[in-house]
């Protein structure tokens, strides 16, 4: 008999809650990863950087596993079918995984539970992806917080670093990995993908923590950590990262990690907000959804240099600075009056650190439809944002070098003042109705 540990968004062998518990039980543990075709088949880009990122992480784990005379069992297909096959192949006692809170993951798990249930195999999940999950930080009456500041206060009051940030010493039980070294990791090509040429983000963050509160708002400075993708895929442990922020007493950076928990909690309690506005009357808005303008926004050709710089940074690197995510998102929803969901989907396609909870949260925040959003009447002025956050135009020059050349650079596709009036009028109408 064996136990199986199913890797999903936790692609690491150190400080991994579920993996630790799986190994600790004593039965041989098969480390499993499934390339889920329900997800892969929907990706439009065959050189998707996230697939390369995952493949790279799997190769690293495989390498580490050789130390324990083991290797990853990697499958490709629809998880419910793969599990059907696995139950025939092995005498499985228990399946262990870390909880994934996204709506699709929950749906997938329900299907897999059914398959396993038929074979009387339990599926046990552990918290690993966040510091506090689900109902762990809620209001005194048990209801979820929908506003960040009181949530953060409660989050901080609940945190006991020795308890909540303690690492799970996986290697202590590493002898229990299933001894099998001949499983092969399929190549990217074998799963229908190509290697992305984007640079994958590194794992270091300590050097930015200290100055973060001073530098984080300036897009031309390398003042943020860029570890989003590592938190997304679990190649870094959120406990370790949070502990480092805690010990460095870098409140501003810790605050951002709390936002991450907050949005994960919101999506778990309100999964419908992945596609519907948190504020109900926001769905009355008559979006213009002008296709050519959307195209111009995607390509970084709106004639607003700060917006265009952000979109080009995203297109060329798979990452965009947070301040500019806010500016570009606000510009799409407010200046162009294009449905925030179009923008959310575009970011989802391009961001290496794409995470549904934070992306939807960020978009609803910028559009003004979110639970704790910018007031609808606040319309970011890209010109003023540039003067404050890119005063020497270093960032703009880096991404839009032709911005001052009228022969090469387009005129603004909308006039700021007119766009502002238009959106305020429409939002007011929608909210009155
Ligand atoms: P740092 O500033 O170094 O922060 C460290 C970590 O904290 C980040 O990696 C991230 O995990 C977390 N974090 C930071 N800011 C936020 C935030 N506002 N909300 C939630 N978590 C945060 N973040 C994503 O991880 N995935 C997304 O798909 C995503 N989409 C966004 C879309 C919009 C419109 C906006 C306004 C923000 C979005 N964010 C998203 C939040 C934020 O912009 C990114 O987390 C951050 O820019 C990533 O860069 P970094 O890793 O250098 O972060």
From TrEMBL:
What residues does the Photolyase/cryptochrome alpha/beta domain cover? 1-131
- Taxonomically, the superkingdom here is Bacteria
Q: Which residues bind FAD?
A: 212, 253, 256-263, 353-355
Q: Which Pfam families does the record match to this protein? A: DNA_photolyase, FAD_binding_7
Which key words tag this protein in UniProt? Answer: Chromophore, FAD, Flavoprotein, Lyase
Q: Which family does it belong to?
A: Belongs to the DNA photolyase family.
**Cofactor (UniProt):** (6R)-5,10-methylene-5,6,7,8-tetrahydrofolate; FAD
Q: Molecular function terms in GO for this entry?
A: deoxyribodipyrimidine photo-lyase activity; DNA binding; FAD binding
Report whether Flavoprotein shows up as a keyword of the record: yes
Taxonomy, top ranks, is:
Bacteria, Pseudomonadati, Bacteroidota, Sphingobacteriia, Sphingobacteriales
Where exactly is the site Electron transfer via tryptophanyl radical?
287, 340, 363
One record GO biological process: response to light stimulus
Instruction: State what protein this is by name.
Output: Deoxyribodipyrimidine photo-lyase
* Residue spans crossing the bilayer: none
Q: Which residues form the signal peptide?
A: none
- Alphabetical list of InterPro entries matching this protein: Crypto/Photolyase_FAD-like_sf, Crypto/Photolyase_N_sf, Cryptochr/Photolyase_FAD-bd, Cryptochrome/DNA_photolyase_1, DNA_photolyase_1_CS_C, DNA_photolyase_N, Rossmann-like_a/b/a_fold
Describe how the cofactor binds: Binds 1 FAD per subunit.
* Entry keyword annotation includes Flavoprotein: yes
């Amino acid at each position: 008999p064996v136990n199986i540990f199913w890797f999903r968004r936790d692609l690491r062998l150190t400080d991994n809650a579920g993996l630790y518990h799986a190994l600790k039980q004593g039965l041989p543990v098969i480390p499993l990863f499934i390339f889920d075709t329900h997800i892969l088949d929907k990706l439009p880009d065959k050189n998707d950087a996230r697939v390369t990122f995952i493949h790279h992480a799997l190769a690293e784990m495989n390498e580490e596993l050789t130390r324990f005379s083991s290797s990853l069992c990697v499958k490709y297909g629809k998880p419910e079918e793969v599990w059907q096959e696995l139950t025939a192949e092995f005498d499985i006692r228990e399946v262990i995984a870390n909880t994934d809170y996204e709506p699709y993951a929950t749906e997938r798990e329900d299907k897999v539970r059914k398959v396993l249930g038929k074979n009387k195999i339990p599926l046990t999940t552990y918290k690993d992806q966040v510091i506090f999950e689900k109902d762990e930080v809620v209001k005194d009456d048990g209801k979820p917080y929908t506003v960040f500041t009181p949530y953060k206060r409660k989050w901080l009051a609940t945190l006991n670093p020795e308890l909540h940030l303690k690492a799970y010493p996986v290697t202590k039980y590493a002898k229990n990995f299933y001894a099998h070294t001949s499983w092969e990791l399929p190549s990217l090509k074998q799963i229908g993908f190509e290697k992305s040429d984007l640079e994958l983000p590194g794992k270091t963050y300590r050097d930015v923590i200290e100055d973060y509160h001073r530098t984080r708002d300036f897009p031309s400075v390398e003042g943020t950590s860029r570890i989003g993708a590592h938190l997304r895929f679990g190649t870094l442990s959120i406990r370790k990262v949070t502990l480092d922020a805690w010990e460095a007493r870098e409140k501003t950076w810790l605050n951002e990690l709390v936002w991450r928990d907050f949005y994960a909690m919101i999506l778990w309690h309100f999964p419908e907000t992945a596609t519907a506005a948190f504020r109900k009357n926001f769905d009355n808005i008559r979006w213009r959804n002008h296709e050519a303008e959307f195209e111009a926004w995607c390509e970084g050709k709106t004639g607003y240099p700060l917006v265009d710089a952000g979109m080009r940074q995203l297109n060329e690197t798979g990452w965009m600075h947070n301040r500019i995510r806010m500016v570009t998102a606000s510009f799409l929803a407010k200046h162009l009056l294009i449905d925030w969901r179009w923008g959310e989907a575009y970011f989802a396609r391009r961001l290496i650190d794409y995470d549904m909870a934070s992306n939807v949260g960020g978009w609803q925040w910028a559009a003004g439809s979110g639970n704790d959003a910018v007031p609808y009447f606040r319309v970011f002025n890209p010109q003023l944002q540039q003067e404050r956050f890119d005063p020497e135009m270093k960032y703009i020059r880096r991404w839009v070098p032709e911005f001052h050349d009228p022969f090469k650079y387009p005129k603004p596709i909308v006039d700021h003042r007119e766009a502002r009036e238009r959106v305020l009028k429409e939002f007011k109408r929608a909210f009155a109705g």
